[in-house]
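Researcher: Quick test of sequence recovery. Tokens follow.
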């Protein structure tokens, strides 16, 4: 089982789970969700087996961690 999670102030939150038996329609929905995060400026890392490699495209064979862009500044 693979998953796509996002970092938040609550810790990691599961966005989706998928595997080799997940329907193509569901994988397309998950990929669309991934693409929405990327369009909003999030980063994505393949964290399968403890590695952390930045990715720009959805990979159904990967455990994916979505990382919000850092916004800062003070007045």
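Model:
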């Amino acid at each position: 089982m693979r998953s796509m999670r996002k970092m938040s102030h609550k810790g990691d939150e599961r966005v989706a789970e998928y595997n080799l038996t997940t329907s193509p329609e569901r994988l397309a929905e998950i990929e669309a969700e991934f693409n929405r995060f990327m369009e909003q400026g999030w980063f994505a890392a393949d964290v399968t087996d403890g590695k952390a490699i930045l990715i720009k495209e959805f990979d159904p064979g990967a455990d994916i961690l979505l990382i919000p862009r850092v916004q800062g500044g003070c007045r």
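The two ends are 45 Å apart (CA to CA).
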